[in-house]
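hiii so my PI (J.) wants the whole complex modelled not just the main chain, which honestly fair. so below is everything: two entries, each one labled with what it is. i double checked the lines twice but i was tired so who knows lol
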Amino acid sequence: MPTDTPQSAVRASHGLRRYLTIYLALWKNSVVREMGFKSNFLLWIVVEMLWFALQLSFMFVIYSHTDRIGTWSKWQVVMLLGASHFIQQIFTAIFLTNCTQLSELIRTGKLDFMLLLPVNTRFMVSFRQVDLGGFVNAASAVAVMIYAGNQLRLSPTWAQVVGFVLLAAVSILVHYSLMFLLASVSFWTVRAQGIVWGYYNLFNIARLPDEAFRGLFKAFFTFALPMLLVANVPVKLLVRKLSSPLEMLVLLGMAVLCLAASELIWRTSVRHYTSASS
Amino acid sequence: MKKYWHVINIGIQNTLVYRVNFLFRATFALIPLAAVLFLWRAIYAGKEGGGQVAGYTLAQMTSYYLLVTIVDALTAVNEDDWQIAADIKDGNISQFLLKPIDYLTYRLCLFGTGRLIYTAIAVVPVTLFILLQRKFFVLPPDWATFGWFLVSTVMTALLQFFMSYTMALLAFWVLEVSTFIFILFAFEYIAGGHLFPLNILPPLLAQALHYTPFPYQMFFPVSIYLGQTTGPALWEGLSIQAFWVMTAYGLARFFWSRGIRKYSAVGG
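here's the output for the full assembly
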């Protein structure tokens, strides 16, 4: 019925506002929690910066012995490291803790409370906590990217910058979907936390230039677990390395696929849930 | 001594529970390894002519990373440091203070059994992987070299353990030790040679690292295997390694005796 449309639109915007209010409350909660352990909060930022510096020095050592990896120059690879760190840290800030804690929620039966809340359960499980340190670390990644951009004498257009941000968001969506999918396995086995951390290791691949890879490895990490797309494609847009716009479409398509798969598994899993206490 | 055999026995049974977990972990660890090998292959492909990077041929470079994987399986401290810190924080060490068991020896037994069982399980995926790479896997020049490699690997395991043990004892003084453990781990990772062979660094930097404990936590035994450290350099390296093992042991004992004085058995 046509008369239904404005009403449902109002309802939708109402719903959106409601979810934003809830998310704001969750943010406030997280800030209060983090500030309870200030020195620990700062030390974790030091740890992350140290590991980022470590990856950068690895590449500097490699480039002291070669000029190129495939066609990637030193500062292009630094740009790639920066971008993948940026994506990883924003993902950490918003989703990581929530994904790793799902198995804990199931094991202890706390998921019961989430299911009873009058909001979408997946929303609640995915956005429960914010890890603020991730945003600070993402800022350091942006600083490295700007420096690398200067070294490359890049002058990106607005379209490129906006495109990069959008593609980075799509990449974060890929990581979130895949990790949430793996976390959903905890409905069947208590060992899922190990699998989730195993996935976290794959970020190691995301920061390497895709050209280095060949054969089955490349196919698997492009079309099954798209690790070789998530940081590479946004950076290739920035440094004008895209061989065709098709690469961006592949990333987008993979993101849609991953999200759909994770939603399917999640729904099946929740139906399977019998609570820990009963 | 007999009581520690019981500890070893219990340790074996406890670790065997995690055998599937170990298999997964050992297999997953091969993915980043394959990635870094791809990266080096691309670099060597870009080199014209002979194709050497800082004296390494592609086969030697590949072997380096494969050996790091093997030595890592044999010597890496896995959960031990977290468990020690948790024992202190939760007050579990009280029972060791009352029993005629030395906590350090107890933990060393558990560490040793954990490593042996992890290695026994990791052997399957790692051997398969090495077989795939067999064109690029070099053997040690002679048996004596292999012997010294084993000696040095044992010392590497001891050094890793004593350093992590000392670090975990920080739990006597601070509430949250994980950040400190990760900071130390970062240094061990890069300065120990996990990421790249240390002798591709600028000579001055490599020389400076030579006297720190880090190369003896990974790089040194691998360099023996590859026949890079021979003659007087071998003796010098083994002495420095032994020195760091003893220093780390001394520190572990010292901080334990200090920590015990401060310990108040929270919750115990």
